[in-house]
Design goal:
Elements lengths: L3 E5 L5 H8 L2 H6 L10 H15 L3 E7 L4 E11 L4 E8 L8 H15 L5 E7 L3 H9 L3 E12 L2 E11 L8
Length: about 170
């Protein structure tokens, strides 16, 4: 598995994020608008910076051991009262297939439990995205079920798998 380091998402990451958001699989399997508006990466960063200040969102860029950008990890819809959040991750196209997704999700999960002090984390993954489902399982997430017709994008509704991980769950194997 590729080791990764998370760093707070900032202006210096925007070119890499914008390039990643143009990838057809990112557009297909995420809630990023398709087509992506021209200033979407900047607007996204502002949204997460606001959430960082009020404790409702956090965003990280992920870099590999050589310092290369390999993706992002997101905590959105952080509910401090309920001690839970939905997480998300996107792997840059040139970093796929080397364990970067699992490393990003594991690092993000560790942050959510240790730093954000959350007790329950959830993932919502398109049923047609087996690579992302495998990443979630390798990071110790448990399937709870399928949410039918849960998101609407480009004229289609999608089914998504709901997965969760509790702070009390055993860590996944290395």
């Amino acid at each position: 598995m590729t080791p990764v380091r998370l760093e707070l998402l900032n202006e210096s990451h925007l070119a890499a994020v914008a390039a990643m958001l143009a990838d057809p699989d990112v557009l297909r399997f995420t809630r990023v608008p398709d087509p992506t508006p021209p200033a979407f990466a900047q607007e996204w960063l502002r949204l997460y910076e606001t959430g960082r200040r009020d404790g409702t969102r956090e965003a990280f860029a992920a870099r590999d051991g050589d310092g290369r950008f390999v993706g992002i990890g997101l905590a959105f819809d952080i509910d401090r009262e309920e001690s839970e959040a939905e997480l998300g991750y996107i792997v840059a196209p040139d970093a796929r297939g080397r364990g970067a997704g699992t490393a990003i999700l594991r690092a993000l999960t560790d942050w959510a439990f240790a730093e954000a002090r959350l007790l329950r984390l959830r993932l919502v993954i398109d049923t047609l995205n087996p690579a992302s489902l495998l990443v979630a399982e390798r990071a110790g997430y448990v399937r709870e079920g399928v949410m039918r017709s849960v998101h609407f994008k480009n004229g289609k509704r999608i089914d998504a798998v709901l997965l969760s991980r509790l702070q009390s769950d055993p860590p996944p194997p290395p």
